[in-house]
Amino acid sequence: MAQPLSYRIAVPGDEVAILKVFEEVAPEVPTVVNSGTKGMIQELVASGLSWVAVNADNVIVGYALAKPYDQETLSLWYLGISKVARNQHVSSILISKLKDIGATIITDVRHNNASSMVERFEHFDFVKCADGLLGKDQTKLRWEVPPAETGGT
User: Domain with 69 in it: what CATH number?
Assistant: First the structure.
């Protein structure tokens, strides 16, 4: 049976635990873990916009690493869920936490991603845009804040 999870903003000190999950999911993204990975994670945690999923033992089992792209847009750099926390809607909850910020969200998915992330992001109401920042090897996706519903009188 799955353990209950909680969600919170990532804080300094979370980097080592995030890196552990990052290393686990890296082959699926695919990305590599190198000497600069921990520093990149530190920068994304320091943004104050990254979220983590934590199990009942206070172990980080998932993350959404983000930072500002510009004053109105959030850039989601990495979304990763440990195998022990999969099939518990962790991705959708982390994405909803980012959406609650109220900014446009952009992200890129590599074409050789083994986790069907383009389709997952589309399920989360992201739409495909022009090629990603690294060109034709990525799909750029964007989520826009829905316009406020106006009630007629």
Answer: 3.40.630.30
For residue 78, give both structure tokens.
């990495």
Domain hosting 123: range is 6-143
pTM for the structure as a whole: 0.89
Tens-place pLDDT, residues 77-108: 999 999 999 999 999 999 999 999 999 999 99
How many structural domains comprise the chain?
Answer: 1
Q: Which segments of the chain are extended strands (E)?
A: 6-9, 51-54, 60-70, 73-81, 104-110, 127-132, 135-143
Specify the pLDDT at position 53: 98
In a domain, 49, yes or no: yes
